[in-house]
């Protein structure tokens, strides 16, 4: 999701082995939030 944006059916299959639908939504939302924070900090030229 971070590198290729589109999540493959194979990866979703692996996620479904561990998570129910709600869990998958939470995992995707968490990844999306971290991506947003990263892009936000880069855009503002914020460093460590």
Explained architecture:
The protein has 48 residues and is mostly helical. It has one domain (9-43). It contains 2 helices and no strands. It has helices at 9-18, 21-43. 0% of the residues are buried. The model has no long low-confidence stretch (mean pLDDT 92).
Number of domains: 1
Q: What radius of gyration results from the CA coordinates? A: 13 Å
Poorly predicted runs: none
SS class: mainly alpha
Q: What is the percentage of strand-forming residues?
A: under 5%
Question: How many strands?
Answer: 0
Tally of helical runs: 2
Largest sheet: none
Topology, element by element:
Blueprint: H1 9-18, H2 21-43
Give me a quick take on this structure.
By secondary structure, the chain is mainly alpha-helical.
Annotation keywords:
48 residues; mainly alpha; 0% strand
């Amino acid at each position: 999701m971070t590198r290729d944006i589109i999540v493959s059916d194979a990866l979703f299959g692996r996620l479904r082995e561990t998570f129910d639908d709600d869990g998958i939504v939470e995992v995707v939302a968490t990844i999306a939030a971290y991506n947003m924070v990263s892009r936000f900090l880069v855009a503002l030229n914020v460093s460590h």
